[in-house]
Specification:
With 261 residues, this protein is α+β, with helices and mostly antiparallel strands. It is 40% helix and 12% strand. The longest helix has 22 residues. The N terminus is likely disordered.
């Protein structure tokens, strides 16, 4: 069952969440292929349940199981790369009550704040958005981390992210510039996902009905796969990765959020 979340006026954000944001260019480093796709993306239809539009892969499989396997591999690769090890809580599933309460806070408070910072198309700005969400939650004493990797939308890989490219960027002695073949999201542990960069991309490239799309995805990997045909594929874990490759001062950002919320 879909709830209309994306319309203007949602969760006290009247006049903020509008389609105007979806066609403007982002700033700083952008993620993925800047809206380009290797092949024509398959539109997502909520009414057409043919094999082409809605495959059994998305409607029946429990993607969280595969996600957790990829997440464990990503943690091992992160340690080998020299990223700080995730804390013990990271492999534990976030409680449903926490996800629900955070969803309300994010929609009503954090989303309007982020829109004022970046009043543009968010589909290519997952790095800075994830950094803000991570810093905000950490300032509130909530355990979380940033996961980076690839994301598949309705069968199409969006970012051309590979472990080799991510490793090369992290080990580079000179700060990388320009596009970054990556997708980033925030996790509270286990299969939980908070993703601000993906909704705009799904609507723009896959014609997903905007009225059924929340401004920021909050949920479990399996739920997001079934609702939005999105499959996050972890490759590395660690906020330090985003900080280093995008030159973002997470400590300073966290201090600013401590003053705000």
């Amino acid at each position: 069952v879909y709830t209309q979340l994306g319309a203007a006026g949602h969760c006290g954000a009247a006049g903020i969440y509008s389609s105007n944001r979806r066609v403007r260019d982002p700033y700083a480093r952008w993620c993925g292929r800047r809206g380009a796709v290797r092949r024509l993306p398959i539109p997502i239809s909520l009414q057409n349940h043919t094999k082409t539009m809605l495959t059994e892969k998305y409607t029946q499989e429990n993607y969280s199981e595969q996600y957790l396997e990829l997440l464990q591999i990503a943690q091992d690769k992160s340690l080998a790369l020299g990223l700080p090890p995730p804390e013990a809580w990271f492999n534990e599933a976030a409680e449903d009550e926490l996800l629900e309460s955070l969803q309300g806070f994010i929609f009503e408070n954090l989303y309007p704040h982020l829109y004022r910072i970046l009043p543009a198309y968010w589909g290519n700005s997952c790095q800075i958005l994830s950094a803000h969400i991570f810093s905000c939650l950490k300032s509130m004493g909530i355990n979380c981390d940033i996961v980076v990797g690839e994301v598949e939308i309705n069968g199409t890989p969006e970012c051309d992210a590979t472990l080799e490219n991510l490793q090369q960027e992290y080990l580079s002695e000179t700060p990388p510039i320009g596009g970054q073949l990556i997708h980033a999201w925030v996790s509270l542990g286990g299969d939980s996902i908070i993703d601000a960069g993906l909704p705009d991309r799904v609507i723009k490239n896959y014609r997903f009905p905007e009225q059924f799309m929340p401004p920021i995805m909050v949920g479990r990997a399996s739920d997001l796969s079934k609702k939005f045909r999105t499959r996050h594929q972890p490759l590395l874990v660690g906020a330090e990765y985003i900080s280093k490759t995008n030159q973002i001062n997470l400590a300073s950002m966290r201090e600013e959020y401590e003053k705000r919320f």
